[in-house]
Specification:
This protein has 239 residues and is mainly alpha-helical. Strand 2 (180-183) and strand 3 form a beta hairpin. It is built from seven helices and four strands, in the order αααααβαββαβ. The strands form two sheets. Strands 1-4 form a two-stranded antiparallel sheet.
Length: 239
């Protein structure tokens, strides 16, 4: 019991001595925590002196989005490139399909080729006759390139027209299963072998048309990327 009282007295003395030290430590902790909190507080910017023109200028300097850089149809100096590329693709693909049809000979594929030739020829006519821009101020070299471009364009239209007629004859013959064609002094039997030979002839003419339209595109590309005719409407006469 005497030892217990002794320990209690030690505890009381230690508590009395350490109490001021605990109070000083608590004050110091509060002071440091308050200092840290003050450093985390952000000072609100003073916007009272900012000019409205400065804000508008910063907004205008933002990078444009996809919808902002997409040109409207009326902004193009000419619709010729859009239409003529459609014609090039159809004529070239039709020629490749005609070669394929020599091997497999499908009537459905023959109809697809006919439609592709018809649409490709129509697009070529529209691009060359109605949407071909007028030019001005060309030098001698660019003028010659433009003439070659137009000459190959006319060859393309003529060749595709011949292909269209030949393909129509093929469809007519295979659709009604005609056995022979009687000509003055001749009689042509329309055997399966003859049909394939006829398709081969159409394929040769189609390859010539494809080559012609590619040459047209070659000179057109030269006009744009080498001679500088067309970009941003240069050397073009706008209505």
């Amino acid at each position: 019991m005497r030892h217990m009282k002794k320990y209690v007295n030690y505890i009381l003395v230690a508590t009395i001595v350490s109490f001021p030290l605990l109070q000083d430590g608590k004050k110091q902790f509060r002071t440091e925590a308050g200092a840290r909190d003050d450093t985390l507080i952000k000072v609100a910017p003073d916007n009272t002196n900012i000019n409205l023109d400065t804000i508008v200028e910063e907004v205008e300097q933002l990078p444009p989005g996809r919808s902002d850089v997409t040109a409207r149809i009326y902004e193009f100096p000419s619709l010729h490139p859009i239409i003529v590329h459609f014609a090039i693709a159809l004529i070239v693909v039709a020629a490749l399909l005609e070669i394929l049809n020599i091997l497999i000979f499908k009537k459905d594929l023959a109809w697809v080729i006919f439609l592709m030739i018809a649409i490709g020829m129509t697009a070529a006519i529209i691009a060359s006759e109605y949407f071909h821009p007028e030019t001005s101020g060309l030098d001698h070299r660019a003028t010659i390139v433009l003439q070659l471009h137009e000459e190959w364009s006319q060859r393309t239209i003529r060749l595709t027209f011949v292909c269209l007629i030949l393909q129509l004859i093929l469809l007519f013959v295979t659709r009604f299963s005609i056995a022979s064609i009687n000509l003055p002094g001749y009689r042509i039997r329309l055997t399966y072998r003859f049909i394939r030979v006829f398709i081969g002839i159409i394929a040769i003419v189609m390859l010539a048309a494809a080559y012609s339209v590619l040459k047209t595109g070659q000179y057109g590309t030269q006009l744009v990327h080498i001679e500088g005719v067309g970009p941003q409407g240069k050397f073009l006469v706008r209505d």
